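WP5 quarterly update. Target: Hybrid signal transduction histidine kinase M. Source organism: Tanacetum coccineum. Length: 193 aa.
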Amino acid sequence: MAVINPPLQPLILLSDKLLTITNLNNLIPITLDIEQMNYSSWVYFVQNLCWGHSLLDHISGKDEDNTSSSTKTPPDAEWLKIDTIILSWIFVTMSKTLQQRLVVENPRSAKEAWDILADIFHDNKHTRSIALKAELRFLKLGDLTIDAYFRKIESIATVLTSLGSPMNSDDVVTFALEGLPAKYDNVSTIIAH
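Structure tokens (predicted):
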């Protein structure tokens, strides 16, 4: 009796699968922006996307298959294609200002772009933390609604935490109360106690 072989299925490369991702904004719902200092949140989403496709080596530089540098084989065409796709993910998920800055740097790989962005954000961490703490210290209710005022305070506190300079709750409450006008003195006294 003759054996009938099933027809061969075409080999679907990972790079071809990655090219079909059309909902990148759903997978990385943050636009990396130096003004918003949302680097840690952006990193979280990009790392999860890469991890989900077993591609962390493209941004971390650690290749699980090649443990020693002496046995490391050069990347093949498929690896290079995937790296270019990840590099495009990085570019399309950041602000125009950062895109321009990164274009000037001209990274040749996703890892190089990743490292450049890390340097940009880490260089600005300390200065940005000082500026945000000053903004929080001098923030007043002014023309803001009470909801907008407290959302702004919460936003600043969140960014400070992401920069590695978290403020304790007591300090945040103190700054919030100090920014309220005199008509809130009774409420401020009660909250303070």
